[in-house]
Amino acid sequence: MDPARIIVLTGGGTAGHVIPNLALLPLLTQAGWRAEYVGSEAGIEKRLAAEAGLPFHGIASGKLRRYFDWKNFSDPFRVIAGAFQAWSVLGRLRPRVVFSKGGFVAVPVVFAARLRGIPVIIHESDLTPGLANRLAIPFAAAVCASFPETLRHLPAAKAVLTGAPIRAELFRGDRAKGEAFLGLAGGGHPLLLVVGGSLGSRNLNAALRAALPDLLARYRVAHLCGKAGIDPAWEGKPGYRQLEYVSAEMPDVLAAADLILSRAGSNAIFEFLALQKPHLLVPLPLSASRGDQILNADAFAAEGYSRVLREEDIVPGRLAQELALLEANAEMLREAMRASPFRDGARKVMDVIARWA
What's the rounded Cα separation, in Å, for the pair 136 and 125? Predict the structure, then answer.
């Protein structure tokens, strides 16, 4: 097979490290590329790649932690094993370029690509690079960024401001189909979509359910509560639907949403921006993260795209008040989002790929 026609996509651990890769697929196909995916056998990327019809190559991976864990003694060996496995996979596929969305599984793939002389393009979704991408950036030919602020954290010779790649199917969502799928058609109230991320959010779920008696008087609520997040006590409640995760139906669900309450993962908030959906962000606190979601949320708030509520500020009644303010300011937020130059970065990323292919 012609190596000029093959691109290896890598990244995993969470949906946020996979979905931007998948967003590029229609443009890659249109440009004549054949995409293959390299990721962890145990990661969410294996399932998502299969759903997208991508050939998948599993390798060992390990997490590099900043805190004590017994796995810190074994995971470096898994990273080394993953690098040897990635070397073998890249040798068989002979891709023209590797595109990495980050996550720890991408680190051995980037190392192996560099050893084989294959150009690597990295995409950094968050405002500041995470540890995996910081380890990989020295071996990359180019680093794409979603936020303008990210450029000052990257080597100037490699940095390219592209924005975030957005899945084309999101722009084809159907409101009526989304309401029907959720079982929330009609009723006259705005539809509030609550998104805790692909793995869910225990604290956000709890805060929402504590406020539901007040919220259901004003909204229809669709709650994507993550793995093991379903609460049987709320099943069948009129005006409320809880689901662990939505995949193929997500474009229709987003089309149905009038307002969104969400964590502040980069991919999600850039999707809200692209679709011009008024949203209230509750970023993960520093106690549960490296602070990337706080930076993402504050950057969007500064541009007028988002309203932000800190998790530690959620007290009884506060969530309902903030959502009422979101509803009151919805048109102002839409105007700011309509004026944004960073609504979809897929074609700009493709330009970078073409430059190094």
Answer: 14
